[in-house]
């Protein structure tokens, strides 16, 4: 049974989401919150596997709430709700640690599929959509104050082998494991191993986080392409 916390300042939307989610035998809503601060308390008390998070809320918004939940409760994964598929706030939420985003206009079957996907540890955002978001918004966001390394390489990449760097670069370009295997002329199983190693070394929970780190490190995006 996958447990879900609903976070939205509109009670009517929360009720609608609850009806859809609880119509599925493997999903259960364990709580609701109307703002980010209450959501933090609910996550601490209920430990939901998935937090369905609105971005625009009074008080603490969904971006800050996501950042705090991911830092303090790694067992709870955040799926953010957005109005547009290429949205600066949606990207900021992904950068804060959300595992994906879903349009508010999504069909009920898309909602429950997204919750299951996030609960299983996979991100919910098409890699090429993420790359488009990064190209648009990453240059305008802070990098966390990291100074460039003397050799020009971000220290977060130092532990990666040359082949793992190739894999990360291709992941950041939106390539699937099958496409990476064809590009590098290796088996898909080998690619999965490399991807897992990259995630572990970067401290990334999923593809979304790995792609964002690649952009922050200058391995992808306009800087990498010259």
Automatic annotation (TrEMBL):
The modification 4-aspartylphosphate is found at residue 54. Keywords: DNA-binding, Phosphoprotein, Transcription, Transcription regulation. One of its GO terms (biological process) is regulation of DNA-templated transcription. Residues 3-119 form the Response regulatory domain. SUPFAM superfamilies: C-terminal effector domain of the bipartite response regulators, CheY-like. CDD domains: LuxR_C_like, REC_NarL-like. PROSITE patterns: HTH_LUXR_1, HTH_LUXR_2, RESPONSE_REGULATORY. Residues 153-218 form the HTH luxR-type domain. GO terms for molecular function: DNA binding. PANTHER family: TRANSCRIPTIONAL REGULATORY PROTEIN NARL-RELATED, TWO-COMPONENT RESPONSE REGULATOR. This is Two component transcriptional regulator, LuxR family. It comes from Cellulomonas fimi (strain ATCC 484 / DSM 20113 / JCM 1341 / CCUG 24087 / LMG 16345 / NBRC 15513 / NCIMB 8980 / NCTC 7547 / NRS-133).
